[in-house]
Amino acid sequence: MNIVLLYGGRSGEHEISLISAAAVARGLDKAHTVALVSVGKDGKWYLEEDSVLGQLRADPKAELSVHADKSRQVSVIPGGGREGAFSCGGRAIPCDVAFPVMHGSYSEDGSLQGLLEMAGVPYVGCGILASALGMDKESAKLMWQNAGIPVVPYRCLTLADVNDSRVYDSKIEEAVKALGFPLFVKPCAAGSSDGASKATNMKELSFALMEAFQWDTKVLIEKSIDAREVECSVTGNSITGSAATPETLLRAYGPGEIVPKHVFYDYDAKYNDPDGAELKIPADLDAEKSSYIKETALKAYRTLNASGMARVDFFIDRKSGDIYLNEINTIPGFTGISMFPKLCTSEGLDFTALTELLLAQAAERFRAREALRTSR
Question: What is the pLDDT of residues 207-236, one digit of tens each?
């Protein structure tokens, strides 16, 4: 199989993508032909030398980067299909399946998925709609609330609200009254806790909103809950999965628990501080709670019409025991400390088997879509 592994990107999670993609490149079955395509922070695509993959596999300490060589810039051709969607220097880059390992904006928000759909190639992970919904935290919450899934109480502010002082003041007053301090403030569509912070008073809330609006034009204000953080991995195709292709059926793995050693599980705790959090797999929960969380993870996944993979995150209120769905990550981390592959491995699906499963699901989903009529 010819695989195009995409990494990098324009988002604030660019550096995390380099680490995740290196792990995926090492974990892919050696029988596949792998082309590494890097995406710079300016959005330009480049075909990496074959030697980069060889070095990654030979040296466990080798790292990926973006080599911005204009002579190796990649073009994407709408309708090009598996043999012509990607080209470099006038030569096609065969692609049976594209494997995006790119987090955040322009990567897992439906933008990249739309491009791959137009190019006519199968790709790993969620489609356009599920990717867009999963990235926009407010939209996902609205969908889950409609499905009867409990979410953390919140309010949403937009840039338009900020530009009208009377509306802004009114919404802030209402949010504080309804939710109370402390509060968490986060961009609606940013990952890895970029732009997120905690506010314990009005002054901190003002600064937190200023920071969050640097990352997005919509911002969430959420009730702060003294909570345990629990996560599930999910694989499968919500729409096309069937018993005829059992690898496409939905499956939840976990749950596992994150025990942060920072104020909250922020970017530093996730990626920079090796002791930033402790991962407990399995989570210390009774059978009833574990079963409920896995079932809710599957329900949340299906509600967004997700496919391929996702990590679904929950909060458990330490005082009341109430369980809230927090968010979904449609291209979760694949780093050495990432929960998504660890949960799969804990239930017998090792890293290489996981990548094989994701490739098979991508191919099946593509076949199902290709069989549909698009004209008379």
Answer: 999 999 999 999 999 999 999 999 999 999
Pairing of strands 277-280, 251-260: antiparallel
Cα-based distances in Å from 243 to 236, 247, 249, 253, 363: 12, 8, 7, 19, 16
What is the strand order of the sheet 227-237 is part of?
277-280, 251-260, 227-237, 307-317, 323-329
HSE-CB of 329 using CA atoms within 13 angstroms = 22
The 10s digit of each residue's pLDDT in 154-194 is 999 999 999 999 999 999 999 999 999 999 999 998 765 78
Q: How far apart are CA 70 and CA 81, in angstroms?
A: 24
| Integer Cα distance of 85 and 94 in angstroms | 8
Rounded Cα distance, 41 and 10, in Å? 4
Show which residues are catalytic: 13, 192, 271, 311, 313, 327, 329, 333
Q: What are the angstrom distances between the C-alpha of 373 and each of 100, 265, 367?
A: 27, 46, 12
Query: What's the pTM?
Result: 0.93
Whole-angstrom CA distances from 11 to 101, 108, 133, 302 are 12, 10, 17, 27
Closest of 32, 45, 64 to residue 334, by C-alpha? 64
